[in-house]
Amino acid sequence: MADIYANARSTTGTSLRKKDMNPQSGMCPICTEDCQILCEIGKSAFRGREVLYPDPGEFGKSTASSNKDYGLDWSHFQIMVDVRGTAGIEPDPDKALFTNVDTSTSAGGIPLMVPVMTAGLGSTAVAKRNWDGLAVGAAISGTIQVIGENVCGMDPDSDYDSKGKVIKSADMEYRVKKYREFWDGKHGDIVVQTNVEDQRGGVDVYALSKLEVDVIERKWGQGAKAIGGEVRIFDLDRAILLKKRGYIVHPDPEDPHVQEAFQNKVFESFERHSRVGMVDSQAFLEDIDWLREQGAKKVFLKTGAYRPAVVALTLKLASEAKIDLLTFDGAGGGTGMSPVPMMNEASTPTVYLQAQVLKGLEILRKKGRHIPDICMAGCFVNETQMFKSIAMSNFGDGPYIKTIGMARAPLTAVMKSKNYVELAKENKLPKNFVSL
Predict the structure, then answer these.
(1) Distance, CA of 6 to CA of 44 (rounded, Å)
(2) CA distance 423 to 126
(3) What is the DSSP code (8-state) at residue 428?
(4) Residue 150 in domain
């Protein structure tokens, strides 16, 4: 597959002077010394950090993803249809109507009105800015909403005890309450996701004991990157606060030389990074037991798209721990802020990842082991993609994949809705929209 985007990507704000680029390097076939266009090589010569992450100027107001063609995606599969009877409804032409289709299901023991859930959306600014639409949308749709990592740690108003454990977070409390305000109490649920820093800060215990959350999700990674989560910080005092709370902040906001450079606008933002949790089998099993002892009624696990051996280990441990819902997030999907090279060049794309997961599940089944419900995530945007993923996981006894996780698409829906509401107030809606 030609790597035509190797030297110019919309995510990094770079472009080429010529359209007929070298298919291997992505460079213009003739590169001239008087060129004023900034390709990735050219921009890197001046400000290399700006081509490492998606456009910094759009942080908090955008989502980003890979733009690499992995050679195989859901569009390469066709849905096979039949007229020799029905499934799930009587074979009666007056009853076998699309309006009578039942889309309800259950994932992790939680009833859902639709086989879709909103995956972890945490401390990144774009999630916080759009939380109302996300939470309300999930609640009225009767599905699961996962509050992602680092929410308490990033909340400047969070209170911690002398042991560094969170005892109050207005942001976390708001997110839980907003979902429950529109929740029917039966379909779906609110889930709190925790990473290394969250566990150290006691976010799980706080959510269970103070906010009466019933479901905790441990996080081992995500498809968009194989490293911990990161966000941009534009305020020096906040950067220092986050470092004191245990986060990795780069460059060091407590370094006087760094402070001087920031104040002189040599750079305009700090990067807050989360750590990558290292998997220890026994420690993981003990941790899941501990979570249940703390009051968790359901325990989920989300992981990224690591090498096949890690997929196998994940399935093995999830089976032994009797995880209620296990999410695999494939490469290519979305992020608030992940390194552009990593989004494109690291981890296993969703279709390939699902093949590995299904192989592992069949091994568990043949050995008579516990099989956790599965959620697949990574680049899903419409119902045909979801249907294909779920249907292809059915080997005769029902699908292994119970639901599909999305984050970027729901955010797009919310952002578009908010934007159009503002345009409507100003009487500036696009004509082709008004005329519909």
Answers:
(1) 13
(2) 20
(3) -
(4) yes
